[in-house]
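Final report, closing paragraph on structural work. Over the funding period we assembled a curated collection of sequence-structure pairs, and we close with a single example.
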Amino acid sequence: MEHLLVGELTSPGSSRQRTVTRPADQRNFPVSPTSRRVRLCNPQWVARTLLIVDDDAAFSDLAARVVTGWGHAVIGLAGSVAEGLARATELRPEMVLVDIGLPDGDGFSLTEQLVAMPWPMRVILISSDSDPANLAAARRAGATGFVPKDELSGVELRDYLEQG
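Its predicted structure, as stored:
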């Protein structure tokens, strides 16, 4: 169900803001002209720290803007398997968005190395190849899931990022 953004509020005793929405079909409620359509957020939502590993700088920038717009923090960018491993070790992100095709290897093997690190880290694989078999391969490698690049701003990626 689509919702309209009505405003932001802060819960008593908390500094975290929560989006207040109402169903888009309730037209009798006054809404400011700057309201926009958003999907209803999970009340248990927590901002995540992310590392993006992709050799396409324009895509990495776009992905960073999308997830930052959802309230998550992009703490690093990498363009290769080697750089992704180094940045993950240095930054210890909660989540890593990894392209399947990288110049010095593939995202599946990088995923296996990332999820084997001694701290918890979830990986979401991405690719311009939207072959449904990528999801099964991603899961075999230990990834949380797979999202085609052309669905970057879709609900599926956001759900992967926000699941507990």
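Residues 57 and 79 are 8 Å apart (CA to CA). Confidence is low (pLDDT under 50) at residues 1-44. We thank the funder for supporting this effort.
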